[in-house]
Every structure is written in structure tokens, then in C-alpha cells.
Write a structure and sequence with these properties.
Strand content of chain A: 15-25%
Largest interface: A-B, 79 and 79 residues
CATH superfamily of the largest domain in chain A: Aldehyde Dehydrogenase, Chain A, domain 1
Oligomer: homodimer
Mean pLDDT of chain A: 95
Radius of gyration of chain A: 24 Å
CATH topology of the largest domain in chain A: Aldehyde Dehydrogenase, Chain A, domain 1
Largest sheet of chain A: 7 strands, mixed
Number of strands of chain A: 17
Structural class of chain A: alpha/beta
Low-confidence stretches of chain A: none
CATH class of the largest domain in chain A: Alpha Beta
Distance between the termini of chain A: 54 Å
Chain lengths: ~475, ~475
């Protein structure tokens, strides 16, 4: 399709979204919850078609993709439950007092939201994924920029979403899809767009972030970018269960051919670890190709950077040009190399694909000091024995991440009320999560009504609390 | 002082703040509440000195300044109460379930915060004002960039804050003060700074916002910039109490010599209104000069822009070059001029100082359509009679502001749990407030602990809830 046509589509979708906002901002929680459930039902009803399309485009396999559709529809239904609860409105009422008016505050939707779909989750972080679901949930129309890695899956999903929303009575323009690189730029620039959400690379996210900030009227940009996801294995944990940890690490870093933003990319192990010795036996050929040729190019470039660091040893896998899929790889360096300012940036840059880096540390105290070199990540993981004191280790990691795991592996992000998927730069550009119930806060802003007549007040703020939602009244939380 | 010395001071204050964070992030709520109360007590104990200094530098008058110190110390004590409540931590616990780990989420401080003080509130939005109080409250060290309009007041306040914090056991570096334009730029660029808060002009705020966004690691910039604060007077309200409204408007737009970010700068009145006829008698000479020569220059330039719009009529006051204080002024235009794209931008640009603009509308329906031309503001105000339906009017204004008043005037911002001081661009760059209890959210980010041992968990997330704070547990809010 011609670029001019695609930019005309951005204008059309975005203007329709602007018009739709007048209806979505006023729709009740029940109504919007109905929209989300209608989308979920439509996707579930067409799961086989969707999975077949997506497997053809991404090679991620039917089992994984079927699970991902379920995760996506479960996510839509969780946001419907969030609306029913009403806590997401953060309602606060201060009755009039001497010298002070009656003030009633709640959150309201920002307006039309641009969503940039990811390559690696063709459902859960794509057209009807968490960003779309959380924006629609709170009453923001959504215009999705499709990811070029799965265009047919995107179009089919969009058609199902559009049909389901229409049948559920949502306004025209509540949802739209645009395609193409230039369309993505036009979308972030469009005056009617009030916020953007993005999942992808640091370079792509930074380019859109810069553009969002440079607008005549800047808008918030919620980018989930890159993450190295450090893992620390203590000497005691390695001694007790190094082989088991090797198996867990191998499974986690190879999952989805290493194409997870939560892939453990940096693993601190004791020098001479059981884990390192056991790892090669756990690393096998990838079951399928990388998602796109661009990702494959990036993977090869990342490997060259890693291999170019003096002393970087290949401890599992062999570098090759495979026909069917990339060879999963494990490199290792010493802590002294890691902390050398000449190499730290290279060694802490995410390489998207099936590779991880072991960093061999001489002792725990030296390790904790070295962790200060880490930038922000989505996650950090500690493997320790129950009787160890990991307070200092936890404190230094908590400063740098959004999710701190004790045991387990960071791949796999449960969609719950408390989940936090987001961390300090460069992991995200956000003080919020893109997964879990509180993801809706990205697309809301507060408003306070001063001395408003009951007839004007939204239901959430009326004196008799007709919605029965949790509120803070005169300083005290009540339900 | 030389610029190089001042920039060295930025490095020193910011590095101390970075070091202090290790202590402030771990300090208990009780401890930090004690710091805030110690600052409040110190300011209250020196109110006479502080007011005398500030009156000499700002000419705002002892009565107003004494009230402002009380507001400032009340604000510090409100944040201490917010900490005691614990709701600000937004604690959420999801116990482990089949296929899902134990997840415990709370908010934690970002790190060192840069605060840019305002000219027009030498206490409440300056060295120990709301930005400093809310950042310190949640455990963020603060480096304040003093406003050049009241340097001695800033230094004296900073000395009191520093002394009070030291006596209360806060770490060195929890608070610092820097001065000078170049120091302000160096501060926003410093890698240890994790967020910034600003109250001031659109131009100044935009320059700092752009710089915060352009950093290698971008940081959130919470700017409270300009606001026109539209007011709508219905035909019925004008007929019933136009003269009373004229008196209220005159008092509000002249308050503090028009130097409030909530000054009503744009007032929609019926053609031939009682209000307009009654207004000239209410407008008198300003009691004192504008805050700074820069503000006086901006005021004169703004008046020239207004007076240059064809048909703009001066309806109260006379343009002069007063020796003691500026002449408060009221201009008026017709709605057709206001909606003319050639003039809307000029007529909706804030002029900081004692001037307001009446826009005469022919009928209510035409007015509601014209309000779509408004950009974001901190506030909007509706003056209507009790039996009028103001639903449509309220809806169009609610899309554009953070505080919507029914009756009353926007100057005066109560410091409460529910207050919202912030609105869509250009009013702020934020989805948060800079006044009221929820202002703390600007300086926090979420973290979730996965399968963490009790010994590592912060008190807020321990199973037995030792702090007794409100939490959401397995989807249900409990206290």
C-alpha cells in the first residue's frame, strides 16, 4: 500500500477515535466491561484460526500460541473485573469544612491512545493485548499500529475486535488498526492522540519517545524497551543445586527462541561453578527460526559484540549459520572484565535471541559492589539457600528493577492485580506497569470537582456511592 | 558567584543526594514523618524572620506571607499523615495459586529529585514547598534550584530545613540548595537525578522538559506551567447576580497582583452582561509591584498582544507605566473574534499579572461549541443557577482541566487528600497533582517481590501486615 494512503488511514482512524472519545468517556463501567468480554469471547471462539495464522507468520508453535490466546482473553476479563471493583478510579472525597470547599477527585480517561504492537507476542502484546485492553477498559479509544512481523494475524484479530465491539454497542472509532512504518510516525504526531504505549527495542522505543516528547503538546509515552534481567546465583545455591539451576536457566533463556523481554541475559555465578559445568548439556538446537529477519540480523550483530570482548569464552553452543534455527549460545566472562568500563556497556546490552552471558565472580562482597554497574531491568532474580542473608544483595537489585524474584526464572509474567512489568530506564520509560491490573493507570488522569451539584457528578463521586466502590472520605478509606 | 563554582555545587549536592538515597529509601514511615514535622516546626518557629525577608524580596505583604508559611507547614504535616496511613504505598498481595507465584507489589521512591522553585509562592511552592515535602515524604532526597526572585528567603529557609533534618537524624544530602540559571541546567542533566518538579512559565518549563527528555536516560519531568483558567457565567447567573460575580472576579484576578497560576484569565459572559457593566467599579490600583522585573516585562508584552487583537476593548483600568504597581486591566472581545483561528492562540495565552479577558457570547449553544478551542488548564469554573442543566458545559470543560469548580473562584487551592492541581498540556506535563496528598505518586515507582522470603520483604508487604496499612489481598481491598 502507498505511504500516502497509509497516512490517510492514520488521520481517519485517529479522527474517528477522537469522535468516539465523547462516547467512551461517558460509558459506564458495566458497559466497558461488556466490550472487553465481547472481545475475549470473539477471540476464544476463533482460537484455531488465529493460532494457525500466527504460527505461519511467527513460527512460535501451536501450543505456545494457543496458550497465548488464553492469556490474552484472560487479561481482557481481568480488566473487566478491575472495572467492577472500582478501586481503579481512586475516588477521594473531602467534604466542605471551614475555609475549604467540597472536593471530589477521581481518575478519568486521557483520550485516544496509540498502541505499538510487539513482534514476540502476536496476541498478548499485540492488537488485542494488554495495552489495548487497559486503554479500552478505562474509556480510551485505541489506534493500534500493527507489527509487520505478523500482518495477517493482526488484521484478523482487528476484524474480530471491530466486529465484537460493534455488536456490543461500542462507538465507531473506539478501535482502529494502521500499518506501516510511516503510519507509525504519523500516529505519534497526531494531535488527537493523548498517550502512547509501546513494546519493542530500545532504539525503536527511544525514537518514538523522542517524537512524543517533541510534539507541540507533548504526550506520555509508555515504552517497554530492553532488559538484561540479571540473575545472581550464590555460592551456596550453586553448591547445593548447580545442575538443577543449569537446567532451569537453559529452559528460560531458550524459551521462545530467546525472544522474551524477560529472558535472563546476564547470570552471575561463582568462579568454577557447578552451573557452568552443567550448562552445555542443557543447550540444544532451537526448535524454529527467529521471528523476523530484522531480529535475526540484530541477534548476529549482538553476538559479534559479545564475542569481541577480550576473554569472552563460548561455553555452550557453536556459532553457525543455521538453516532451520539459530544455535543457542552461552558466553562467559570474569567479573573483572564485566566491571571494566570499556566493556560494561557491551556486556549489559540486551541481545534479543537465544544467548545468555555468565559472569564469574570471585566472592559475594565483590559481586554486590559490581552490581552497581547495572542499569534498569524489568526483573532480577536471586538464587540463594534459605539460611543465607540476601538483604544487601536484594537492596542493590531493588534499586534497579521492577520485579525481584527469589527462586524461579523471570520468563513468564503472571497477569494479576499486583504484577509489575516495568523498571527503570532502559527497561521502560514509565512509572507504571504494562501487565496486570494497575496497567490502566497509564491512561488516566485525575480531575477534582469543587462544590459540584449532584446532577453533574459522575456516579463514582455521588454522596450515596451508587456504584459501591472503595473511596477515601475525609481522609479515611471506606468501602 | 562564578558559574563554575555553582556547577560544582550542583555536582556536590547531587552526589550527596545520591549517597543519601541509600538511607532515605530504607528509613521507616515514622522516621520520614518525623523529618517533615521537624521542618514544619522549624519554619513555624521562625515565621516572623521568614516573612520579613520574603516581604522585602517579593512585596507580597506580611498578611499573605504569614498565611503562606502556615499553608506550607500544614502541607508538611499533611504528608506526615499520609505516611502514617500507608495507603500511598499501594500495596497489593496475590498469594501463590496453581501455576502462579506469590507476588507482592508496593511503591518505592525513585531516587534524588530536582525541585525548581516558583517565583510567586516564596514558601508554598519554593524551598520547603509541596514538591520538596512530597519527595522527602516518600524517601527521595531533594536538590532545590532556588528562584532568583527571593534568594535570601530561599537561603534562610534552606538553612532551617538543613538544620531541622540534621537534628532529626536525616542523612547528609537528603536536602540541598543550588542557585543560578546554569546550575538549574546542570541539575536536570545530572545522571543521579531521577525526576524533576517545576512550577513556572510555559517557556521555562518546556525548556527543562525538553532537556529531561533528551538525557541519555530520560527522567520524568513534572511541570506546572501556564493556565488560562476559563470561567463561564450563564445568562441566568448573570441576570440574578452579575454585580456580585463582578466583585468576585475582580477580587480573584487581582489577588497577589494577578500572579497566581489559578488566576481566572478568560471569562465567558453573555453579551451586554451585568457583570461587565459592574466590573470597572471593582478594579483598583494594585497594592504593590510585580514580583520581578522579568514578570513585569512579560506582563507588558502580554498586554500589547491582547491590545493588538482587532476589536479588543479595554473595559476597566488604563494602561500606564505606574511607579508603585501595575494598573489592573480588563479587556473584552466578542466570541467571533475569540474563535477566529487568527486570534485564538493570542487570546488563550496566559498573561501573568493583573489582567483578565471577557469573551462576550451570544447564546449558550454557540458558547459550548466555542469552548472546544480551549487547551488544557489547571481549572475551569461554572457560574450557573441551581435549576440550570450544565451537563454539556461540564463535559466539555472536564475534558480540558484538572479542577472543575461550580461557583467560587479558582484562586486558592486547598491542601487536602483529594486536591488536584494539574491539567492537560500546557497546564502541566503530568498525570498527577502538585498539591494535595496524591502529589507523592510523582516520585514513586512500583516494585513487585516474587516468592520473597519474609526476611527480605519490606514491612508493608509482610504477611501479618505489621504497619496495619490498607492493602489489596487476592483481589480484595482489606484494612
Amino acid at each position: 500500500m502507498h505511504t500516502t494512503t497509509r497516512i490517510a488511514e492514520v488521520d481517519r482512524a485517529t479522527e474517528l477515535a477522537g469522535d468516539a472519545f465523547a462516547a467512551t468517556v461517558g460509558a459506564s463501567d458495566d458497559t466497558r466491561a461488556g466490550w472487553l468480554r465481547a472481545i475475549a469471547d470473539a477471540l476464544d471462539a476463533h482460537v484455531d484460526d488465529l493460532v494457525a495464522l500466527a504460527d505461519g507468520e511467527t513460527a512460535l508453535g501451536a501450543a505456545r500460541l494457543t496458550g497465548e490466546v488464553a492469556r490474552t482473553t484472560g487479561q481482557l476479563r481481568l480488566f473487566a473485573a478491575v472495572l467492577a471493583d472500582g478501586g481503579y478510579l481512586e475516588a477521594i472525597i473531602d467534604h466542605a469544612a471551614p475555609g475549604r470547599p467540597d472536593l471530589r477527585r477521581m481518575l478519568r480517561p486521557l483520550g485516544p491512545v496509540a498502541v505499538y504492537a510487539a513482534s514476540n507476542f502476536p496476541f498478548a502484546f499485540s492488537v488485542a493485548g494488554g495495552d489495548t485492553a487497559s486503554a479500552l477498559a478505562v474509556g480510551c479509544p485505541v489506534v493500534v499500529k500493527a507489527h509487520p512481523g505478523h500482518p495477517e494475524t493482526s488484521r484478523r484479530t482487528a476484524a474480530l475486535v471491530t466486529e465484537a465491539l460493534a455488536a456490543a454497542g461500542a462507538p465507531v472509532g473506539a478501535f482502529g488498526l494502521v500499518e506501516g512504518f510511516e503510519a507509525g510516525l504519523a500516529l505519534i504526531d497526531h494531535p488527537a492522540i493523548t498517550a502512547a504505549a509501546f513494546t519493542g527495542s530500545v532504539a525503536g522505543g527511544r525514537a518514538l519517545f523522542d517524537r512524543a516528547a517533541a510534539r507541540p503538546a507533548p504526550i506520555p509515552f509508555f515504552g517497554e524497551l530492553g532488559s538484561i534481567n540479571p540473575v545472581v546465583v550464590t555460592e551456596a545455591a550453586d553448591a547445593v543445586r548447580g545442575a538443577e539451576l543449569a537446567a532451569g536457566l537453559a529452559a528460560s533463556f531458550q524459551l521462545g527462541v530467546g525472544q522474551f523481554c524477560t529472558k535472563p541475559g546476564l547470570v552471575f555465578v561463582p568462579e568454577g561453578s557447578v552451573l557452568e559445568a552443567a550448562l552445555p548439556a542443557q543447550v540444544g538446537r532451537a526448535p524454529h527460526r527467529l521471528l523476523t529477519e530484522a531480529i535475526a540480523r540484530g541477534f548476529r550483530a549482538g553476538l559479534e559484540h559479545l564475542a569481541g570482548v577480550p576473554g569472552a569464552a563460548l561455553v555452550a553452543g557453536t556459532v553457525s549459520e543455521p538453516a532451520a534455527g539459530p544455535e543457542p549460545l552461552v558466553y562467559a566472562v570474569d567479573l573483572a572484565t564485566f566491571t571494566d568500563p570499556a566493556f560494561t556497556a557491551t556486556l549489559t546490552t540486551e541481545v534479543f535471541g537465544p544467548v545468555t552471558l555468565l559472569v564469574r565472580y570471585p566472592d559475594a562482597a565483590t559481586l554486590v559492589g559490581a552490581l552497581a554497574a547495572l542499569e534498569g531491568s524489568l526483573t532480577a532474580t536471586v538464587h540463594a539457600e534459605p539460611d543465607e542473608d540476601v538483604t544487601a544483595l536484594s537492596a542493590v537489585l531493588a534499586d534497579r528493577v521492577g520485579r525481584l524474584l527469589f527462586g524461579g526464572w523471570p520468563t513468564g509474567v503472571a497477569v494479576t492485580w499486583s504484577q509489575q512489568h516495568g523498571g527503570p530506564w532502559p527497561a521502560t520509560t514509565s512509572q507504571h506497569t504494562s501487565v496486570g491490573a494497575t496497567a490502566v493507570r497509564r491512561f488516566q488522569r485525575p480531575i477534582v470537582y469543587q462544590d459540584a451539584p449532584e446532577a453533574v457528578l459522575p456516579a463514582a463521586l455521588r454522596e450515596d456511592n451508587p456504584l459501591g466502590i472503595p473511596r477515601r472520605v475525609d481522609g479515611v478509606q471506606v468501602r
